[in-house]
Specification:
Blueprint: H1 2-13, E1 18-23, H2 33-43, H3 47-58, E2 61-63, E3 66-68, H4 81-98, E4 102-106, E5 109-114, H5 117-133, E6 144-147, E7 153-155, E8 158-165, E9 172-178, H6 180-193, H7 202-220, H8 222-232, E10 239-240, H9 242-266, H10 274-279, H11 282-287, H12 293-302, H13 306-330, H14 338-350
Parallel strand pairs: 9-10
Antiparallel strand pairs: 1-5, 1-6, 2-3, 4-5, 7-8, 8-9
Helix pairs in contact: 1-8, 2-3, 6-7, 6-9, 7-9, 7-12, 9-12
Length: 352
């Protein structure tokens, strides 16, 4: 996947900002067996192997208790299906390559790149014809031509936000963030693992969420690896990922809130609110080995340490507090009301 991201970033930086974002309609279900076998014969000379593949394709599948036979499609979930699909679409790769079209393909998802609208339209026309020849059809609803100077697009779980002028120096740049669906999936998985009807120790709760955090962050950090790999090959990067940090900080806050709710189930005498937040703060969660996604992301990308993380988080909290006080003064209000002071005192008492 990193290689695919490298190609996308490289083409955008090189000025290939007209992008054909294409989706094949029901790809795995519509591969013609006859055509697939013909293509396989170019690469496989062993008739026994070809015969086994053909038998496997024609074996059919169970649907509502009935055996269904078809001359189309590869069984999804079959160990050999992705390989056969890649071999089949390799014909499309050759067509693009012979016509000098820049592209990136990951399984049945692909993007084409061009410098002008006319060139991308020609590439789209050629692609449509080749897919028709292969017995496949483009999904009109999910296929679009993107001008990256104005439009965004999604690919491989990331959202690529179009070029814009940076406010501080007016230099052009673009941003990459996880897709909204990916972030939503992250939160849902955390929510599922922190259902409060379970009575577990703090360590057990942490062991439930840490694998999810590792998996998601390892996925998100591939964009940084792709940027660095391109820079090593001499391509200066204008791709910014700072939005990712804000997203991960927000997710970390959500994870801590979910864990506090889970913890309170085993500690019913511990009051909620500021008192609970003070007792189970960032330092506490680090001490019981919760992995902050923000820290892990920056650690893998830049070698960020946990000490730096705690220092930065503390500075951010102080800065936010100052902003709240300033905002209250601007409105002619008092931030430290008697009620607020009492809550702070309760939190302080709970920390001992």
């Amino acid at each position: 996947m990193q290689r695919a991201l490298q190609i996308i970033l490289w083409n955008i930086e090189q000025g290939y900002n007209h992008i054909y974002d294409c989706d094949i309609k029901g790809f795995f279900d519509n591969i013609p067996h006859k055509k697939l076998i013909e293509i396989l014969k170019k690469y496989v000379s062993d008739r026994t192997v070809l015969g086994l593949i053909e038998q496997w394709l024609k074996a059919g599948h169970m649907e509502e208790g009935k055996l269904i036979h078809s001359d189309y499609g590869t069984p999804q979930g079959g160990v050999i299906s992705p390989l056969l699909a890649n071999v089949y679409l390799n014909e499309l790769d050759w067509e693009w390559d012979l016509n000098g079209i820049r592209f990136v393909r990951y399984a049945d998802d692909f993007l084409l790149f061009a410098k002008t609208r006319d060139d991308i339209n020609k590439a789209a026309f050629l692609t449509k014809n080749k897919l028709t020849e292969l017995g496949l059809e483009i999904s009109k609803e999910k296929t679009k031509v993107v001008n990256f100077h104005h439009d965004d697009f999604d690919f491989l779980g990331f959202s690529f936000h179009h070029w814009e002028q940076r406010k501080n120096d007016n230099k052009p740049s673009f941003y990459v963030t996880p897709k909204k669906e990916s972030i939503k999936d992250f939160r849902l998985k955390i929510k599922e693992k922190t259902r409060k009807f379970l009575t577990l120790s703090k360590e057990e709760w942490i062991n439930r969420v840490n694998p999810i955090i590792r998996g998601k962050v390892n996925y998100y950090v591939t964009i940084i690896k792709a940027i660095k790999a391109n820079e090593e090959h001499g391509q200066e990067s204008n791709c910014k990922t700072r939005w990712m940090r804000g997203i991960l900080l927000s997710l970390d806050g959500y994870i801590r809130r979910r864990l506090r709710i889970a913890f309170i189930h085993k500690h019913p005498n511990q009051r909620k609110g500021m008192k609970m937040n003070s007792l189970w703060n960032n330092a506490f969660f680090l001490s019981i080995k919760l992995i902050p996604s923000y820290w892990l992301y920056l650690n893998k990308a830049y070698g960020y340490t946990k000490e730096q993380y705690l220092t930065d988080i503390t500075k951010t909290a102080k800065r936010n507090l100052k902003n709240k006080i300033r905002s209250a003064k601007t409105k002619g209000e008092e931030y430290y009301t008697p009620h607020q002071l009492q809550k702070m005192q309760n939190a302080w008492n709970a920390s001992f």
